[in-house]
Amino acid sequence: MSLLVVGSVALDTIETPYGKKNRIMGGSSIYFSYSASLFGPVNLVSVIGKDFPLEELEFLKARKVDVKGLKMEPGKTFAWCGRYIGDMCKAETISTELNTFGTFNPVIPDKYKKSDYVFLANGSPILQMQVLKQIKPPKLVFADTMNLWINTEKKALLKLISQIDGLILNNDEIKELTGMHHIVAAAKEILKWGPRFLVIKKGEHGALLISKDTFFAIPGYPVEVIRDPTGAGDSFAGGMMGYLAKTNKISTTNIKKALLYGNTVASFTIEDFGLERLKRVSPRKINERYKSLKAMISV
Amino acid sequence: MSLLVVGSVALDTIETPYGKKNRIMGGSSIYFSYSASLFGPVNLVSVIGKDFPLEELEFLKARKVDVKGLKMEPGKTFAWCGRYIGDMCKAETISTELNTFGTFNPVIPDKYKKSDYVFLANGSPILQMQVLKQIKPPKLVFADTMNLWINTEKKALLKLISQIDGLILNNDEIKELTGMHHIVAAAKEILKWGPRFLVIKKGEHGALLISKDTFFAIPGYPVEVIRDPTGAGDSFAGGMMGYLAKTNKISTTNIKKALLYGNTVASFTIEDFGLERLKRVSPRKINERYKSLKAMISV
Questions:
Q1: pLDDT confidence of B90, banded at 50, 70, 90?
Q2: How distant is the Cα of B179 from the closest Cα of chain A, in angstroms?
Q3: I need a labelling partner for B100 at 20 to 30 A (CA). Which of A141, A262, B215, B272 fits?
Q4: Residues B189-219: pLDDT tens digits?
């Protein structure tokens, strides 16, 4: 089934205890689509600037990521510069230059307007809503967000949340969005606002799927060395949506499996900088690790 | 099979957003034995002072906790006073008066010396070692510890760790004990020091069981309201060891089930102050919630 992602493309400068990389390809839609493409084709809508190294797109095209919706605008590409220290749980942002992404006006190509599965990657909820308005109601729409939008665009965010099937948040975001300390109570509150599914990303502690009648928990895959956590969340979403689009079944059991695939893909992403590890991973390796992860919750 | 616990009995003064309780019965060995007694008889070795309200022991006796190893010494009972605020993840200690527990010299009654299952609750590793020296090697010994002993008695703690089957730690303790940020690497390091099993308590994020060939993760049971987190860790250990002593099978699968039972019991403990919720819980309720918890990791 067709899968569409709308989000950012960035040039990331990243420093971790394992080294430093300058202006490598990143951004939510890139991590998402590269991860989802392990399961099937992906259509990407985003924006880049004139400084973007176009040869990088070849990696995406080779993986059946359709980049016809990627627009080049005058100006520079979104640039993020960050650092991870200590337990590397949280990025310290050194600088953010929105550049062309700051004025991004997503135009969905006609042939993407009937996408079955849609992921609205992290971005302003106003922009996310613009995407929703352009497309025929899909089988499944998931959206991601962040603290910035919870604080600055809450009204628009609540409106968006009322119109999507699933929301992906991390532990801090769910507390901030609801003003509640207790995850379960907070999750139940958000489910009242509209979405059928809530996925809570907890980093090393794994992820939760919460719906009206489901509470499902998976651990983080215990990787030996985390070299760069950048893109973990979008890789997770990409693996999850990629698996769902491939199998085209929105049952609770299938979404549980999709979460396990999401965590599996993300566990590879963080083993090296940027997309390096994902570029080398094979479907066989994905399936092996998926089975290991599943065994970690089997009694 | 026979189960022995050696640890503290305390009179706790606890304040949470849900109220305040003065000098209620608590302490590691109390939460442990009360929880373990949901599965079978428990033998308790500890110390109290002259101020201890002896009628409180009737609750324990009614649950087949043998308190013949509970010694009354001149002076006062160990008294802890603490507060939980916000997300109630961590207790803020207002005061600790060790009193009779500060000079506790555990003497194991002869009839407990051949215990099959032993839990060395949180206490000085020197004291924990004194217990080990008095008993015939049991089928399974688990120990708990805390940051205080990691910082002040590390040498004795490492010696103890080399002589036990299993160690229970929380996320912070494992990092502090090994100086490592990464849980998996830290766990592997500790397994080299002697224990076969490592159990990592992660509060709302559940628990991990790590051995040479096992990595098993369970979520925290999503309780609706947490009124008082005191005793969660010892209730977890009590449920786990109680189930193991009852079933008398030290296989990986059985320890996984024991972890689920441990988390189940702890989830009841935190629903009310002190032992209040545990006093009201029935074996049927335990089994119902155990099944729910197991379903939360079933695909």
A1: confident
A2: 11
A3: B272
A4: 999 999 999 999 998 899 999 999 999 999 9
Q: With an 8 Å Cβ cutoff, is B208 touching chain A? A: yes
Instruction: Kindly list the strands in the beta sheet with B19-26, ordered across the sheet, starting from the edge strand earlier in the chain.
Output: B19-26, B10-16, B78-83, B92-97
Q: Which of A183, A217, A253 sits opposite B296 (nearest CB)?
A: A217
- Domain membership of residue B243 (yes or no) is yes
**Domain holding B162: CATH number?**
3.40.1190.20
Which member of B181, B215, B226 has the closest CB to residue A87? B181
In a domain, B281, yes or no: yes
- Rounded Cα–Cα distance for residues A59 and A80 (Å): 21
Given a contact cutoff of 8 angstroms between Cβ atoms, the answer to whether B259 and B238 are in contact is: no
Q: Indicate if the pLDDT at residue B22 is higher than 90.
A: yes
Residue A2 to chain B, least CA–CA distance (Å): 25
Q: Please indicate if any CB of chain A lies within 8 Å of the CB of B212.
A: no
For the question of whether the overall pTM of this predicted structure is more than 0.90, the answer is yes
What distance in Å separates the CA atoms of residue B118 and residue B168, rounded to the nearest whole number? 13
Q: Is residue B21 part of a domain?
A: no
Instruction: State the smallest CA–CA distance between residue B210 and chain A in angstroms.
Output: 10
Question: Does B143 map to a domain?
Answer: yes
Q: Kindly provide the b/e burial profile for residues B69-102, where b requires at least 16 CB atoms within 10 angstroms of the residue's own CB.
A: bbbebebbbbbbbbebeeebeebeeeeebebbbe
Q: Is a pLDDT exceeding 90 seen at residue B14?
A: yes
- Distance between CA A73 and CA A38 in Å, rounded? 29
Into how many domains does chain B fold? 1
Average pLDDT over residues B56-83: 95
Partner residues linked to B92 by β-bridges: B83
Q: Which of B181, B185, B299 sits opposite A256 (nearest CB)?
A: B299
- pLDDT tens-digit map of B224-272: 889 999 999 999 999 999 999 999 999 999 999 999 999 999 999 999 9
The sign of the CA dihedral A220, A221, A226, A230 is negative
Q: A209 by DSSP, 3-state: which?
A: strand
Secondary structure of residue B20 in the 3-state scheme: strand
A297 contacts B297? CB cut-off 8 A: yes
Whether the pLDDT of residue A2 is over 80: the answer is yes
Q: What 8-state DSSP symbol labels residue B243? A: H
**Mean pLDDT estimate for chain A:** 95
Task: Please spell the DSSP secondary structure of B71-114, one letter per residue.
Answer: EE-SS--EEEEEE--TT--S-EEEEEE-GGGGG------GGGTT
Q: Read off the pLDDT of each residue in B68-92 and give the average, rounded to a whole number.
A: 92
B81: pLDDT strictly greater than 90: yes
- Give the CA radius of gyration of chain A: 18
ipTM confidence score? 0.89
Burial class of B281 by CB neighbour count within 10 A (0 to 12, 13 to 18, 19+): middle
User: Residue B285 corresponds to which tokens in the numbers above?
Assistant: 């309720």
Domain of B221, in residue numbers? 3-8+27-74+101-295
pLDDT attached to residue A87 = 76
Identify the burial level of A146 via C-beta atoms within 10 angstroms of its C-beta, where 0-12 means exposed, 13-18 middle and 19 or more buried: middle
Residues of A with Cβ-Cβ distance to B256 under 8 angstroms? 299
Q: Is residue B262 within 8 angstroms of chain A, CB to CB?
A: no
Is A293 in contact with A49 (CB distance < 8 Å)? no
Model confidence at B184, pLDDT cuts 50, 70, 90, reads confident
Residue contact A253–B299, C-beta within 8 A: yes
